[in-house]
Amino acid sequence: MFWKRKAKETTLDMERIPQHIGVIMDGNGRWAKQRGLPRQMGHKRGADILEGICDYCNALGVKVLTVYAFSTENWSRPQKEIDALMDLLYDYLLQVEEKFRGRDMKLKISGDISPLSDKIKQAIAHAEEVTAPGKRMILNIALNYGGRDEIVRAARKIAKESKDGTLQPEDLTESAFSGYLDTAGLPEVDLIIRPSGEQRLSNFMLWQAAYAEFWYSDVCWPDFKNEDMERAILDFQNRNRRFGGVKE
Ligand code: IPE
Ligand code: IPE
Ligand code: MG
């Protein structure tokens, strides 16, 4: 006996656009290497294409786009590459006000920014402040972010509140725990996209990924196009999300 499957949709259903998409922006180094360029050039190109992808998601009505820009493990890279990534990030932050103008978008940074330079921390504070009125879409940049680190930081806050007597152990539900994470208040992550052919989370949104759909592509991030995003969303819309239940 065969399971009856619905025919695959071939155009986007605008009523079922994922609310929150996470992207592991991977493959910058390989993209550059394939072209005989330094890795930094791949990172530059990767940062440049983000704007178009943001606009596309914003136009579709995606509420949150979380992009993994620097992991807690990326500190193990050569200092020269780390410096280049930090410079790129700084330049990006300085341009946020202009880039977001007229787009009704808000910037949020997730991750532990404490080890970053004062210059970058100030640029983050400024970029978050000037874009705070943005209501249509949030661009959430995961920076010095690690899912394990995020959970440990949450656990530390919880331990402190518990010690201070402001939190009772029985009040710590799943939803209360979520409120201690960097993604507090954001909608659940529906779809996680990883380009460049790798099929792993690399410490991205461990808690939030519980029921996210995954989509992989061999395209390196600097070559990622709106059409790839469209394919990912279309594929997402053809999935049968059951959340542990039973569905036709
Ligand atoms: C992703 O591209 C960007 C960061 C991790 C900062 P990579 O630099 O990991 O590119 P590959 O995986 O080496 O191609
Ligand atoms: C994940 O990519 C981190 C970011 C894209 C920022 P990596 O390239 O660091 O992950 P691994 O090392 O391939 O797992
Ligand atoms: Mg990589």
Which secondary structure elements does this structure contain, and how are they paired or packed?
Layout lengths: L19 E5 L3 H7 L4 H22 L3 E8 L7 H22 L4 E6 L7 H14 L5 E9 L1 H18 L9 H5 L12 E4 L18 E4 L9 H12 L11
Parallel strand pairs: 1-2, 1-5, 2-4, 3-4, 5-6
The protein binds 3-methylbut-3-enyl trihydrogen diphosphate (2 copies) and magnesium ion.
One 3-methylbut-3-enyl trihydrogen diphosphate (IPE) binds next to helix 1.
List keywords for this structure.
six-stranded parallel beta sheet; binds magnesium ion; binds 3-methylbut-3-enyl trihydrogen diphosphate; Undecaprenyl pyrophosphate synthetase; 248 residues
Write up this protein.
This protein is an alpha/beta fold and 248 residues long. It has one domain: 3-Layer(aba) Sandwich (Undecaprenyl pyrophosphate synthetase). 40% of the residues lie in helices and 15% in strands. It is built from seven helices and six strands; from the N terminus they run βααβαβαβααββα. It has helices at 28-34, 39-60, 79-100, 118-131, 147-164, 174-178, 226-237, and strands spanning 20-24, 64-71, 105-110, 137-145, 191-194, 213-216. The protein has a six-stranded parallel beta sheet, sandwiched between helices. Strand 3 (105-110), helix 4 (118-131) and strand 4 form a beta-alpha-beta unit. Helix 3 (79-100) packs parallel to helix 4 (118-131). It is globular. The two termini are 15 Å apart. The mean pLDDT is 96. The structure holds 3-methylbut-3-enyl trihydrogen diphosphate (2 copies) and magnesium ion. One 3-methylbut-3-enyl trihydrogen diphosphate binds next to strand 2.
